[in-house]
Amino acid sequence: MKNYLLALVLGLAALGAQAVEMEISAKEVYEKVQGNDPGVLFVDVRDPLEIMFTGFTDVVHVNIPYLLADRTRWEDERSIYRLYRNPDFVAQIKAELARRGMKEDAEVITLCRSGSERGKPSAQFLRDNGLPNARYVVNGFQGSPVKDGPQAGLRIVNGWQNSGLPWSAKMTPGKMFRVDK
Fold first, then answer.
1. Does the keyword Signal apply (predicted)?
2. How far apart are CA 126 and CA 41, in angstroms?
3. Can you give the pTM of this predicted structure?
4. For residue range 103-148, what is the model confidence (pLDDT) as tens digits?
5. In the 8-state DSSP scheme, what is residue 66?
6. Where are the domains of the chain?
7. Pair 167, 56: CB distance under 8 Å
8. 21-175 architecture in CATH?
9. Three-state SS across 116-179?
10. Which candidate, 141, 142, 109, 103, places its Cα nearest to that of 123?
């Protein structure tokens, strides 16, 4: 029994040692993708309508939303449309991996606006559903808002846009999530 428990503990420790950290900086992701790392899938997990108004980076391999806005349901408390998890999110990620000849232990890196509401939760959700090396871009696409001063509330501190990395107001049609295809 002692040998079994020891083997179990050592096995779990080895698994934990193999897992990658969940957080990754925008610059690190850029370097991985620019270096054509064959074990990386970089996914923008924002609703395409948000991308349309905030910008996009063509460095992303594909847009697969984690949360989508339900434009038929309003949340009075937050003054927003109700958000719901894309029911096909994991299947769509796995299909994209398969399409690219990648295995489920590939490094799937997610990008949202700030890294908190969709980035980290989407990476954790992927890990919980069989993709052990899912990660997210800390501070996301637009970064954190300034807390004080005349620019309070503006997202000009960090994130993809504020790191000097390439982005545009234009979306790349072949990379965007579309319900008509």
1. yes
2. 13
3. 0.86
4. 999 999 999 998 788 999 999 999 999 999 999 999 999 988 889 9
5. S
6. 21-175
7. yes
8. 3-Layer(aba) Sandwich (3.40)
9. CCCHHHHHHHHHHCCCCCCEEECCCCCCCCCCCCCCCCCCCCCCCHHHCCCCECCCCHHHCCCC
10. 109
